[in-house]
Specification:
Keywords: Queuosine biosynthesis, tRNA processing. By secondary structure, the chain is mainly α. The protein is 52% helix and 6% strand.
Length: 132
């Protein structure tokens, strides 16, 4: 329990773990951080003030379909809890979708390929890689 980082989830599955529980997706959302198919994104940063794209251009969650990075950043910076909820919803959706991909990768016998892809997206293969 307490495992919620993408690399630990995938490595846990490889080692036979099939149940995870963690506050990480909601905790990092409260700090303005979201998980994306391109890696970690800190939406509260100033660079997203005028970014009208979704949190993740490859995500079909409610948040990504209806709200922009700029709007979510505005909500979080303004202290509106709705922004934290949208970021939390996205993070939970991302992880559920990731685990569905893990299930399919097991069936397709290419879990190690998925692991390599996710590790590349999050920069886990680089020295001094930053987790969450």
């Amino acid at each position: 329990m307490g495992v919620g980082v993408t690399d630990s989830l995938i490595d846990g599955v490889i080692r036979g773990i099939d149940m995870f529980d963690c506050v990480l997706p909601t905790r990092i959302a409260r700090n303005g951080t979201v998980m994306t198919s391109h890696g970690r994104l800190v939406v509260k940063n100033a660079e997203y003030a005028r970014d009208f794209g979704p949190l993740d251009d490859q995500c079909s969650c409610y948040t990504c379909r209806n709200y922009s990075r700029a709007y979510i950043r505005h909500l979080i910076k303004s202290g509106e809890t709705f922004g934290l909820r949208l970021a939390s919803y996205h993070n939970l959706y991302y992880l559920i979708h990731l685990m569905k991909r893990v299930q399919q990768a097991i069936l397709d016998d290419n879990l190690l390929d998925l692991r390599a892809e996710v590790f590349e997206q999050y920069g886990y293969n680089k020295p001094n890689a930053k987790s969450f």
